[in-house]
Design goal:
The protein is mainly alpha-helical and about 400 residues long. It contains 15 helices and two strands. Strand 1 and strand 2 form a beta hairpin. The protein is elongated, with a radius of gyration of 25 Å. The chain binds heme C. Heme C binds next to helix 12 and helix 14.
Length: about 400
């Protein structure tokens, strides 16, 4: 009974997380578009920066932006913040429910670093806090005055963290951790910088003081960062279902390339929204990054000590199905069976059954993706599959699996 409630709790939480993120990303994309499409026209109020006309849902909208603030405070202001907060809160709850509650399966891999669950969780939380602190420090430092330099340094910082995580957590844990750090930076930008700045501006206006324009500038900078990070962070979130992304040797480089890919695609739209010539080159860069990602993912599982050419070496001696069956039965079937014997599992995970010869053959491609080309399975290598055994599975798939 508890298990069923747990599974549903996680399901509803995931639903909430996706919906909240849609709300946040949707409003963020909308405002970026609006901001870039503003036009300066005569006849606008004195403090107005520009206006835009839009049509949606059967009506026309005339949006006017006030750069610092309007002369008089409107009585009713809509704030956009709960989309961000709800996304972060539900996301963190999911990390707790999956990665912290089953740290041994998802967060830690003794072959990477022998951590206790408590130590793993403590490092994970500390990294969320420190990631934000360093990023925020960079933005406030003199570097923060030059947007391009700041972006370059921020990029190196995130990629370095991603690399460091692959030396601490399991492959899956490491990838999720970098996604959580980026998501935390984005939500903290809203909570700690954008909203407090806006509150100060509102308070100043009500008190009849001239608001400091620094709040508007700072808010805009953070909001632009969030905009460029959106596509990569969504990729990290869905990549959990794609072992070739997170459980191959160069997952951190794959992350770096998705940061570039996501940012250039956003840039394309940002330019178009400004009615600038479309920078078509961005799609070329994105395609090259995409191809590089595909290629990197073929270089084999993470944390494998064997040289890269191993697959060719094993392919020389044909693999018998009996060998494959032995490996899968001894390393996988305790979890992937009708009635798993692994403590805490009551149904085969994701409905994948690997307990008979026929089922193993039927799932050949899935087995290759999860256990030969990547090391996503077994989770944290709890059943100690060896690199040779992974190669045998790989060779079986490439030799036509009979
Ligand atoms: C300790 C239990 C356990 C062992 C052992 C195990 N798995 Fe899994 N497997 C899981 C869990 C849990 C999931 C679901 C992961 C998730 O939530 O995405 C899973 C998911 C999968 C999936 C589906 C992936 C997806 O996203 O659809 C495949 C394929 C798979 N395992 C293959 C294997 C293979 C092959 C082995 C043996 C080399 C193996 N597993 C060993 C627990 C295990």
């Amino acid at each position: 009974m508890w298990e069923i409630l747990w599974v549903w709790g996680e399901t509803f939480l995931r639903w909430l997380h996706v919906i909240a993120a849609i709300g946040w990303i949707g409003s963020s994309f909308y405002f970026i578009h609006l901001d870039y499409s503003l036009q300066q026209r005569e006849g606008l109020p004195a403090q107005a920066y520009g206006e835009a006309w839009q049509v949606h849902g059967g009506g026309f909208y005339n949006m006017v932006k006030y750069l610092v603030a309007p002369a008089r405070m409107p009585d009713d202001l809509t704030w956009f913040k709960w989309e961000a907060y709800a996304t972060w809160i539900s996301g963190f709850a999911l990390v707790v429910a999956i990665f912290y509650a089953s740290a041994n399966l998802y967060l830690i891999d003794p072959a990477v670093m022998a951590l206790s669950p408590t130590a793993g969780i403590a490092i994970s939380i500390a990294a969320l806090v420190l990631g934000w602190a360093v990023y925020d420090g960079l933005c406030r430092s003199p570097l923060g005055r030059n947007d391009t330099v700041l972006a370059a340094v921020g990029f190196v910082f995130i990629v370095a963290l991603a690399y460091a995580f692959t030396k601490v957590f399991s492959a899956r844990g490491a990838f999720m951790q970098i996604g959580a750090v980026i998501g935390t930076i984005m939500a903290a930008n809203v909570l700690m910088v954008i909203i407090p700045g806006q509150r100060k501006v509102v308070a100043d206006l009500i008190a009849g003081r001239a608001p400091d324009p620094v709040h508007g500038r700072r808010g805009k900078q953070r909001s632009t960062h969030n905009n460029y990070l959106t596509l990569p962070v969504v990729f990290v979130m869905i990549s959990n279902h794609y072992p070739l992304a997170y459980a191959t040797r160069f997952s951190w480089v794959i992350l770096a390339l998705t940061l570039v890919m996501g940012a250039v695609i956003r840039h394309f739209y940002n330019m178009r929204h400004q009615r600038q010539p479309s920078p078509w080159w961005t799609w070329g860069v994105a395609a090259v990054c995409g191809l590089a990602i595909v290629w990197l993912s073929t270089l084999g599982p993470a944390q494998s000590e064997r040289p890269r050419k191993r697959a060719d070496a094993t392919a020389a001696s044909p693999v018998k199905f009996a060998q494959v069956e032995d490996i899968v039965i001894s390393r996988c079937s305790m979890c992937h069976a009708e009635e798993p014997v692994w403590a805490g599992l009551s149904v085969p995970p994701k409905g994948v059954l690997l307990d008979t010869a026929a089922r193993i053959k039927a799932n050949a491609r899935q087995i290759a993706i999860a256990a030969a080309w990547s090391n996503a399975m077994p989770p944290s290598n709890v059943t100690d599959i060896t690199a040779e055994e992974r190669d045998t599975l790989g060779a079986w798939i490439s030799s036509g699996r009979d």
